[in-house]
Amino acid sequence: xxxxxxxxxxxxxxxxxxxxxxxxxxxxxxxxxxxxxxxxxxxxxxxxxxxxxxxxxxxxxxxxxxxxxxxxxxxxxxxxxxxxxxxxxxxxxxxxxxxxxxxxxxxxxxxxxxxxxxxxxxxxxxxxxxxxxxxxxxxxxxxxxxxxxxxxxxxxxxxxxxxxxxxxxxxxxxxxxxxxxxxxxxx
Length: 187
What we know:
The chain has helices at about 5, 85-90, 100-105, 105-115, 115-125, 130-140, 145-175, 175-185, and strands at about 25-30, 40, 45, 55-60, 65-75, 80-85. By secondary structure, it is of the alpha+beta class. It folds into two domains: about 10-90; about 100-185, Death Domain, Fas. It has a four-stranded antiparallel sheet. Helix 5 (about 115-125) packs across helix 7 (about 145-175). The protein is elongated, with a radius of gyration of 21 Å.
């Protein structure tokens, strides 16, 4: 997946390849053993190159258990690949769990109360959540609150869930008492 997909909040989950070769131009169906799973497209023709996406998209809202994915050939319905997707595969072990992300839930308070912005930006740059151009633009803004607003509406929004996880870890380190206070008030 390229950076664009990652910025939209998609997450790569690496799993083993099929045990046998798949034939080009054959059609395949992906299924999930979980109610409410949306899988697009319904069938996929395996091609060398295509202008259209040559992958399945799986959307499952807040899965709460292990589920299985299976690919089978459309014509004979024989499985060619099966794998288990575990909770640890799709949930970050750091920070808040399902639902609204901590940094989104507490956006107003963080904009208002973060005071240690320079080392936060330094860490976001070194972790590649923001680029040098974003870093320079945000650093040039005169007030901390405006810097935080710019960070939220630009680079952090584009970084998606994984970028917010990194931001959260940095906040825990650089704004320890602020994060603890917000957690305490949320519970």
